[in-house]
Records
---
Amino acid sequence: MSGVRVLVGTSKGAFVMSADGTRRDWRIDGPFFEGWEIYHVKGSPVDTNRVYASQSTGWFGQIVQRSDDGGKTWDTVGNQFAYDGVPGTHQWYDGTPHPWEFARVWHFEPSLSDPDAVLAGVEDAALFRSSDAGASWAELSGLRNGGTGSRWQPGAGGMAVHTIIEDPTNPKRLYVAISAAGVFRSDDGGVTWTPKNRGLASGEIPDEDAEVGHCVHRIALHPSAPETLFMQKHWDVMRSDDAGDSWREVSGDLPTDFGFAIDVHAHEPETLYVVPITSDSVHYVLDGKLRVYRSRTGGGEWEPLTKGLPQEHCYVNVLRDAMAVDRLEECGVYFGTTGGQVFASPDGGDSWQAIASNLPRVLSVEVQTLA
Amino acid sequence: MSEIRVVIPTHLKTLAQVTGEVRLEVADPVTTERVLDALEARYPVLVGTIRNPETGARRAFVRFFACEEDLSHDPPEHPLPEAVVRGVEPFFVIGAMAGG
């Protein structure tokens, strides 16, 4: 019988949650890597037994873990992320030059076609690739050295490549998003990159429609419509229908358009999910109510989804990598909160169930659909 | 060669899959650098967790103690105290006290 495996990274360890296709009864394994920050756990879409985890602390740095049995057992693999050449400087919070320095891996993106290939987005912002299942890493330095790197600046959480998307119809086309620089696209497999931020307007930077400097929180793409991208920016929900060449706002009737996470329904390319957050200075949901908003019109018109979610005294955030969808016939939606809750909806968001309610701060949620 | 007793923090014990003290054969003169070289050679998973693998610089939140002294800021090629060399006292790798 089909099933799902939900991979959860928290501030104090990782958890693996599994269920059959009904997604009602859950088994929770973990914590793995107790006491470490687990920024991201993600499985290969080619080999669902292969899973990568980013394990780090400020004390002892970066460790990379790999499982080849679906998260039951883990082995450390390569943790050397050396920038290509002399890395130079980016902007610090006050606009002064600051040396590039590796801190941690924020995001792993396993290849859509090769189980041994995986990309890593890191802080300070750069993109690395491994072609040996994480044993060694080499920077795709055309991103950082593409001409605008010295103008990138950190968001509150640091300056990182936090989103990586491979075009499922064209393996040469990649997208990344960086806080706070914006979206970049490569059409040559990651060798060269171009900023793709036309149409974004950000009041937090001196020139609000600058080529780079935008605090893009997350981008998402539906496999059947790879020219269409959706974005949750610092403020504003945006969409592009030309592979990022231009963007337009689709925040529409959202109660607030600040937020972090955004995702697309597995089978409906115009159905989106966001979790509006009060504001840039108040990082929890509006009015103490945890509400996912769904648009069935590709943005613009949104409906709150509340069944099974706390509707009073709830003051949590949903971070950028903490929402995912499965690919079962009835699409499941998952998200985790800074209050340690992990919620699942087996019916596209109509109703929700807490898989776990008292975990450490949830940093990431991914889901694998199992045959 | 001297047998050096080394105590590493819990998280690094977990990574290295050890319990208790680690005992390492280290060539004389015994220095912080040589102890860490021997530690990383025995447990490659610790490369990068204590010091920068390229520059050798101690990570900011890691400290080195021995004989009730903080040796964190001594040059890494500086000889360690005789009591550490003779195995009377361990060499401590410590995660800095910073909450968490």
---
Amino acid sequence: MNIKELEEKSKAYRKKILKYIYNAKAGHTGGSLSIIDILNVLYNKVLNVSPENFNSSEKDIYIQSKGHCVEALYVVLADKGFFPEDDLLTLCQYQSPYIGHPTKKIKGMEQNTGGLGHGLSICCGSALAAKKDQSDVKVYTVLGDGEMAEGSNWEAFMFAAHYKLDNLCAILDYNKLQITAPNADVMGLEPLDKKLEAFGWAVRHVDGNDVEALVNTFDALPFEAGKPSFIIAHTTKGKGVSYMENVLKWHHGVPTAEQYELALAEIDG
Amino acid sequence: MGQEITNIPKGVGLANLEVFASTLESLAQADKTVFAVTSDSRGSGKLVAFGQKLPEQIVEVGIAEQNLVGVATGLASMRKKVFAVSPACFLTARALEQIKNDVCYSDNPVKLIGISAGVSYGALGSTHHSLHDYAVLRAINNITIIAPADNFETAEAIRQAAAMDSPVYLRFGKKNMPEKIEEVDHATSFEVGKGRVVKEGSDLTFIATGEAVWPCLKAAQKLAEEHQISATVVSMHTIKPLDQRLILQLASQNTPIITVEEHSVYGGLGEAVGSVLLQNGCHNKFKIVGLPDEHTVSGSQGEIFEHYGISEKGLTQSALNILG
């Protein structure tokens, strides 16, 4: 898939995210729009994961630590053929398996996540197992910026460097807003690159809503032999819909009919 | 009423902890997918020899229990048979959310090994006691909870847990225990989920778990010798799923039931047994012996047991009281 095609995918994914959130009257809108370009590039350019090889021990592993942005992941998995997209019309409904966080009930999901600060530790175990098996499996996770305050993440940062897990890549969806306020006001992360480098990770910055820049960054993995890789993906919460961008209430705001139509028109434009 | 006791094990066996370590080592020798994951706990888990002999099968995470359980989850998801080993107090409190979400909810068959459980750490104080673990884990779906009483049960429990494709929590102490607590004519076997009747009697029943089973058998001996009272003693090693069939069978004798555990009286074996009795219309006299809801007295494990009546003397008295 070339860059132009990836950009078209991102537009299509954004519209679908809004469609299913609008239909469900629930979802994490802002974060799903910030994370989607990362997931687009992961599933269409990086990960060796498909419905056909999902039960194989040779496939790559993606665990979404930032579980609440599951709508973006559902849309991508449906596009990759893991399940019929129409299933998402049941999102968050009574007895639907399509709940508001990743669940192994849905093919394509590796683990149930949603509690924050869990994904990276699990990825560490999986990456270590791959090393022990001398397999080529690569392990990826996307973290949210709010969950970077969880102590368990920092336990895992130490572990990954100690065990030289250069088959592990963590990507931060750094939209800089969490449910209460900007990260900088809630619990500042900076200087994040220096902190992670001091913890033994190889770190790169990227525009996390620019698919070409993301492709180039993933192409450079591992950034340094013997070190886990960390991508600080600078994103915009609500990306692609002007009235949602960087506006706190769209953390889990649901658009009205009028807002929904306006958003679709903007994405198409 | 009295029943002569001839078969109480002479001498003492090993600590269940040591039996765990040697059993795990033999499993790991035979199966390269068996892993021990430790949080600076290989010494207290008696796994130093394991680490020397099988260095590729032990993973150290440092003092980081949340990461311990997360890493164990990741390894288990990659088809490893993983034993996460840490003091019960830290494992089941510090890492409870990882146990709930990553292991149980996500259905990863990690074996969680709570070492030096209950009040094994005695005078180190309540930071190091686990008197809450049955209660919190009982309320979490998809986990088997086992507290073996003796060396025999420990080895069997470890082997059977390793073969189970589901999460298991096993806890034990570090005090020497009998090789096999047994005072019945026939040899008892161990099966996860099935209580083990280690002594048969007719006047009352002790249903105990873990290291509280042994004082029950000693009390049963004293009751027979000095009071002509014949007590049944059950090692209810599996607290969840609970052997409801056996409990109801014991209750049908219409004699008193005393539960005994190294755990808070809240939320543990006693309340689980009481729930079975009440919901099945059983009206046996009933008493829960465990650690009361107070700041635990200081002292060794043995002294704490004595203080709260988890002892030959205390349980003999509890039996006499309930029989009136």
---
Amino acid sequence: MSHIPQHQLIDFHYGELNAAESREVREHLANCEACRADLAALETIGKTLYTLEDSSPPANGFEQLMNRIPTSEMISAPQIGRLQVAPYFLLLIAIIFSASIIGIFHQNIAALSYFEWFHQFAVVDKIGSLGFSAILLSSIGVLLTAAIAPVLILEMRQRRNIQRL
Amino acid sequence: MVNKSDEELIVLVRRQNTAALKELYRRYERRIFNFILKYCGRRQLSQDLLQRTFERVWFGAHLFAADKGSFKGWVFTIALNLTRNEMSRKYYRYHHQDLSEVDEQEVSFPSANIHTPETAVIQQERKALIARALGLLKPHLREIIILKHYQQLKFREIAEILDVPEGTLKARFQKAIADLKVLLNAEDF
């Protein structure tokens, strides 16, 4: 006679078998001393573990929780959605915008009187008005990014914290 | 609020409804607290982790996806991850947490069944033995015993929380029971 697999006995003990399976196990147990002993051992362990009863949580737990939660700083779902999409979208717009400006106005930009001083360097003539405009706009981009870096870092940290949840 | 389901309440929590959060806290406070307490054996730490669990429920309410599982599973997952992270720090002996070494006040035991000083002592000793055996189980086995036995979750729910196949989970549970039998020296109980 084959015995009840241990996992099925555990399911039976914790009431996780359906009615038909339970009946089958009960019928087997009625005729099998070894399986009855296995079940009894499981029940003994169960009763032993239940000796360790539940404890009461702290009385004013929710009040303490509310002190930890600044409700005004709640990050709502739509806001998170925007936070996740906005940087990539803005970057794409910035690239398209910068490329258009450089493509259309590179000669006018290079010819501006503000940049006369730069033309004394041979490298400026080598890279041409297109290269000069690209470097100029990239530099402006880097400076602007550096200026808002603290905000970006804060946002990154905030998002990392949310992802850890 | 009392008549609403967990999933309805978490939708309200997303809209910063503190009454909904309070109801969820009321429903799960005791279970989560005892789950953490039995896992780590430290009352103060359990209180802190309980608070941090619900802090995350509040701030991460929008991350809960009802189609991917129940709120119960989600909140236990948060509590479990927080506890695992905390216990994995080097100042806790993660792999062999001896719960019997902690102060009696930390793992407090109700004394409803204690009638005489003698039985009280015996009861306390038995509880200390069980706590120690539980603490000596490897964490990945201990958490299954706590979730299954003390929290009365179904294997399907535990598999969801631990993110392991149900078959693997049952095999681990069998191993945990076998280890406990050895640790408890079952014939003495």
